[in-house]
Write a structure and sequence with these properties.
By secondary structure, the chain is of the alpha/beta class. The chain has 2 domains: about 260 residues, Alpha-Beta Barrel (TIM Barrel), CATH 3.20.20.70; about 90 residues, no CATH class. The protein contains 15 helices and 10 strands. Strands 1-2-3-4-5-6-7-8 form an 8-stranded parallel β-barrel, surrounded by 8 helices. A two-stranded parallel ribbon has the order 9-10.
Length: about 450
C-alpha cells in the first residue's frame, strides 16, 4: 500500500514541478503568473467587500522623525493612492499645510473620497464643511483609561457630546464615521450604548481603534481585546451600519488583527468592511497595518483583484522621499531586498523556477529581482547574474563561468569586509573573464 501511495505522490510531485517550470519563469508574464497563482495557493473568496481607508496623510505623517510633506507632495501622494485604487483617504485639516493639501486634492477631483479627521468639536466640523468635505471622521475615546482626559465628565455627558457632534455633521449632509479610541480596552457594556447612540445620531460607520495594539486575532479571544469578538458584537448588538478596523502595531500584530477583522466580516457576510491602514505602516509609535500588506493578503489569499498592485514599489519610494523616511531594506513587498537573492541555495532554486523562493513575481508589485553575489554564492548565482547583465542565456558548460567564479573568489578574499560584489565590479570581472558586456545604462 505504501508503494502505491508513494507512486501516486511521485506522479503528483512531477506534475507540480512541470507546472512550475512552465509558468514560473525569470521573464515575467502576467497571464502565466495568474495561472500559477490559482494552482499554487488555496483561495478563500471573501463574502464582503474590503474598502481600503488609507490614513497615511493623517495618522502616517504623525510619526516621529518624519519631515512634514509640502501641500504639493501630500496632494501627489493622495493622487497616487487613488490611482492605485484606494477607496477612501483620511487627511488632517488641523494645520495650514493640511488645509492647503486638502484644497489641492479637491482640485484634482479627489473630493468625494476624502475624509477629514476631526475631534468632537463644532469648530472642527465647521472647518471641514468650509473646506467642502463630504465625509468626516470624528474621533472620541471609549475606554475608561482614555476618559481621564476629561475626569470631570460623566459617561452620559461624554456620550451626549459625541452624539451632538455626529448629529450636527449629519444634518449638514456629511457621511460620518466615529472612531472609538482605545476600543480594545473599552468596557463593552458602555461601548455598546455609545455605538448605538452615535448610530441613532446619524453615524454610518464605527471604527474599532486598537490604539495601543493589544487586540487579539484569536477567534475565541473575549471582549474587549478579541477582534473577531468585537466585530461580531458590533454586528449583532448595535445599530451601526458599517464597521472599520484601525490597528496599531505596538505588539507587531496590526496586519494580523486587520485581516482577522476582514475575515470575520466575511464570515458574517457583511456587505463591506473598512480597513484603516497606512502606506509602509508609518504612524504613531510603532505604526499601523500597512496598506500594501493588506492589499497583498487580500489578493493572494482571498482572490481580491481590484487594486493596481504594480504601483506599490513606486509609491513606496515616493512616500519615503516625500517624508524623509528610511525604507527598511527588508520591508515586505516593497523593500530594496524583498526580491534580492544572495544565498547560493536560494540562487539555485531561483534558477530552476522563481516561485521556489518568491511568493509572487517582483514585477507584480512593480519591483525587480536582483541576484547578489557574495561569499555564499555559487555557480548558479554567478550564471544568473551574468545572464541578467548580458540580457541573454549563458550555457552551464561555458568555460568563462569558471574563470569568473575564480576572479570573484579572489576579489572577496583580497577585499576586507565587503558583503557583496558591486554590480560595476561584477561587470569588470566579467570582462576579465572574456564576457563582452554593454556599458551600464543610466
Amino acid at each position: 500500500m505504501m508503494g502505491e501511495q508513494y507512486f501516486a505522490l511521485e506522479k503528483e510531485r512531477r506534475n507540480i514541478a512541470d507546472l512550475c517550470r512552465s509558468l514560473s519563469k525569470l521573464d515575467y508574464d502576467r497571464d502565466s503568473w495568474e495561472k500559477l497563482n490559482r494552482a499554487a495557493y488555496t483561495k478563500m473568496p471573501l463574502d464582503c467587500d474590503v474598502i481600503i481607508d488609507d490614513t497615511t496623510l493623517r495618522e502616517g505623517i504623525q510619526m516621529s522623525g518624519l519631515r512634514p510633506p509640502t501641500p504639493e507632495e501630500a496632494a501627489e501622494l493622495g493622487e497616487q493612492l487613488a490611482k492605485m485604487g484606494v477607496e477612501r483617504l483620511e487627511v488632517q485639516i488641523y494645520s495650514n499645510s493640511g488645509k492647503q493639501a486638502a484644497k489641492l486634492m479637491h482640485d484634482k477631483g479627489l473630493g468625494p473620497m476624502l475624509s477629514a479627521w476631526c475631534r468632537a468639536v463644532k469648530g472642527d466640523i465647521d472647518e471641514a464643511l468650509r473646506l467642502d468635505f463630504e465625509q468626516i471622521g470624528i474621533s472620541h475615546p471609549v475606554s475608561y483609561i482614555h476618559f481621564e482626559k476629561w475626569p470631570e465628565n460623566t459617561l452620559g455627558e461624554l456620550t451626549d457630546r459625541i452624539s451632538e457632534s455626529v448629529s450636527y455633521a449629519a444634518e449638514h449632509g456629511m457621511t460620518v464615521f466615529v472612531h472609538g479610541e482605545d476600543s480594545t480596552r473599552a468596557d463593552w457594556r458602555f461601548e455598546r450604548e455609545f455605538v448605538n447612540a452615535v448610530a441613532d445620531a446619524g453615524a454610518k460607520a464605527y471604527r474599532i481603534c486598537d490604539t495601543v495594539g493589544v487586540g487579539m486575532s484569536f477567534p475565541k479571544a473575549a471582549l474587549p481585546q478579541g477582534i473577531p469578538a468585537k466585530v461580531k458584537a458590533l454586528s449583532k448588538e448595535t445599530r451601526i451600519p458599517y464597521i472599520e478596523i484601525h490597528a496599531h502595531d505596538d505588539l507587531g500584530n496590526a496586519v494580523e488583527n486587520t485581516m482577522s477583522a476582514i475575515r470575520t466580516a466575511s464570515e458574517l457576510k457583511l456587505e463591506k468592511i473598512f480597513a484603516s491602514t497606512t502606506f509602509l505602516g508609518i504612524g504613531d509609535r510603532s505604526g499601523n497595518a500597512e496598506t500594501e500588506k493588506i492589499m497583498m493578503n487580500c489578493y493572494l489569499h482571498h482572490n481580491v483583484n481590484k487594486w493596481d498592485l504594480s504601483l506599490l514599489r513606486k509609491l513606496a519610494g515616493r512616500v519615503a522621499d516625500s517624508l524623509g523616511y528610511h525604507l527598511p531594506l527588508n520591508k515586505a513587498i516593497v523593500g530594496d531586498s524583498a526580491f534580492e537573492h544572495k544565498s547560493g541555495i536560494h540562487q539555485h532554486g531561483i534558477s530552476i523556477f522563481p516561485i521556489m523562493y518568491e511568493t509572487f513575481p517582483p514585477e507584480l508589485v512593480g519591483h525587480t529581482r536582483r541576484i547578489v553575489i557574495g561569499a555564499g554564492s555559487g555557480r548558479h548565482g554567478i550564471r544568473l547574474k551574468a545572464e541578467q547583465i548580458l540580457g541573454r542565456p549563458v550555457e552551464e558548460e561555458d568555460s568563462r563561468l569558471e574563470s569568473l567564479a575564480t576572479l570573484i573568489r579572489e576579489e572577496l578574499e583580497n577585499t576586507q569586509n565587503i558583503p557583496e560584489i558591486e554590480d560595476d565590479t561584477f561587470r569588470l570581472l566579467m570582462r576579465e573573464a572574456n564576457f563582452k558586456t554593454q556599458p551600464k545604462k543610466g
